[in-house]
Write a structure and sequence with these properties.
Blueprint: E1 10-13, H1 19-29, E2 33-38, H2 63-68, E3 73-76, H3 82-94, E4 97-100, H4 106-110, H5 114-120, E5 125-130, H6 145-151, H7 154-157, H8 177-195, E6 199-204, H9 205-210, H10 214-223, E7 240-245, E8 250-255, H11 259-268, H12 283-288, H13 290-301, H14 306-315, E9 319-322, H15 326-330, H16 333-337, E10 341-347, E11 351-356, H17 380-387, H18 392-401
Parallel strand pairs: 1-2, 1-4, 2-3, 4-5, 5-6
Antiparallel strand pairs: 7-8, 8-9, 10-11
Helix pairs in contact: 1-8
Length: 405
């Protein structure tokens, strides 16, 4: 039995930013050998995103990049140079999978499109994770996460009804597409095992995002009703929101959906007289008077810590959860128990750091021991000699010709 779930699978990762590299990250964490191809002249913008170790800026000091690229090898090629393309094709010949998420036509411009790669490796599996897909009237439009999450509809429905759209935190679709991409690649590996044939995936990040808005799309399709910004409100629960608690910017989310939960909620807060008022006796009545209801609930939660509110509500069978900040999450006992945060201490530039592990555990094999994310060009020589079988003379010649950056 293979020691790791994907041991022996080899990946040539030409992608950048988030969607592509995170897709191949899942394969690397399951034991695949992933070689990430980067450029020093057109650096992956993710390397410029913080936070940075010790708040010192540097292309090899981004903790966001470090946690996202753990367990990969890294090389830097000049894909506008014939020698760089030669090395890239040799990498594809070595690989089982090739991944990219540039604008449509970019890989073809390098001479590395799917049809070209099939000439190098007939059974290659390739995935492209562009914003809008490879075909269609808008496919060639470039963009980034903020624009794509707006196109996908997320920005419009997140926020408060009397304010401008807020949108989700960060590039939301960049963190949706990798799940679809990784599953597609696993299916393609199984298909190739059975048939001996490779496959090309044209994945649209735009379309993957729409799966997370299915209720809103279905409601419009069936009833012509457009989803509206509601803040933390819910059309079938009241109270439903995040309520300020004792302490500095501490909150707890509470959701009351059924009559039984309402009665339990009232018991928790001591059955004050207002809970018996007709304007709060039914869900519809509470929804009609939701502003006053939220004010009264907030008066009670303000006298308790967020953790206390959560514990009391959950004990009574009412859905509640502390609105956790970054410090809370870093110290979360459940995540620590599950070893969601793992430690690495051998990064060449930043030394030690914690990375986020896969959000599931396997009964076997044991979890992969983390290898630090590569610095720019860190494994140029190692990959060329150990994976591609280059001689010293050949490697030196390619360096002198400008194949590497």
């Amino acid at each position: 039995m293979s020691e790791k779930a994907l041991e022996g699978v080899k990946v040539a990762d030409f992608s950048w930013m988030a969607a592509g590299p995170l897709t191949t990250r899942y394969l690397a964490f399951l034991g695949a050998q992933v070689v990430r191809v980067e450029s020093k002249t057109r650096v992956d913008p993710a390397r410029t995103f913080g936070p940075f170790r010790d708040d010192i800026l540097g292309l090899d000091r981004s903790l966001l990049t470090a946690t996202g690229q753990t367990n990969k090898y890294g090389i830097t090629l000049n894909l506008r140079h014939p020698g760089g393309v030669e090395v890239a094709k040799r990498l594809v010949a070595w690989a089982d999978i090739a991944a990219e998420n540039f604008a449509p036509g970019t890989m073809e411009g390098f001479g590395l499109g799917y049809e070209e790669l099939r000439q190098v490796k007939p059974d290659i599996i390739m995935i492209s994770l562009s914003n809008l897909g490879q075909t269609g009237p808008l496919a060639s439009r470039p963009g980034a996460g903020a624009q794509l999450q707006a196109l996908s509809g997320f920005t419009d429905i997140i926020g408060w009804p009397d304010r401008t759209p807020a949108g989700p935190y960060f590039a939301y679709t960049d963190y949706i597409a990798p799940y679809f991409g990784a599953v597609a690649l696993l299916a393609a590996l199984d298909y190739r095992r059975q048939t001996g044939r490779g496959m090309y995936f044209d994945l649209s990040q735009f379309e993957t995002g729409l799966h997370f808005l299915a209720p809103a799309l279905l409601d419009y399709s069936a009833n012509g009703r457009e989803a509206q910004r509601m803040g933390n409100r819910c059309p079938y629960a009241a109270p439903h929101g995040a309520y300020r608690c004792r302490g500095d910017d501490r909150w707890c989310a509470i959701g009351v959906f059924t009559d039984g939960e309402w009665r339990a909620f009232c018991r928790v807060i001591g059955n004050p007289p207002w809970t018996e008022a007709p304007r709060f006796s039914t869900l519809m009545a509470r929804l009609e008077n939701v502003d006053e209801l939220d004010r009264l609930v907030g008066e009670w939660t303000a006298d308790h810590s967020a953790e206390e509110v959560m514990a009391l509500m959950q004990e009574a069978g009412v859905a509640a959860g502390v609105v956790q900040n970054a410090q809370d999450l870093a110290q979360d006992v459940q995540l620590r128990h599950r070893q969601f945060y793992r430690h690495i201490d051998n990064h060449r530039e930043i030394g030690s750091y914690e990375y986020l592990d896969l959000p599931f555990t396997l009964s076997h094999p044991p979890p992969l021991e983390g290898r630090s994310a590569p610095c720019l060009g860190e494994h140029n020589e190692f990959v060329c000699r150990e994976f591609l079988g280059m001689s010293d003379d050949e490697f030196v010649r390619l360096i002198q010709e400008g194949a590497f950056e």
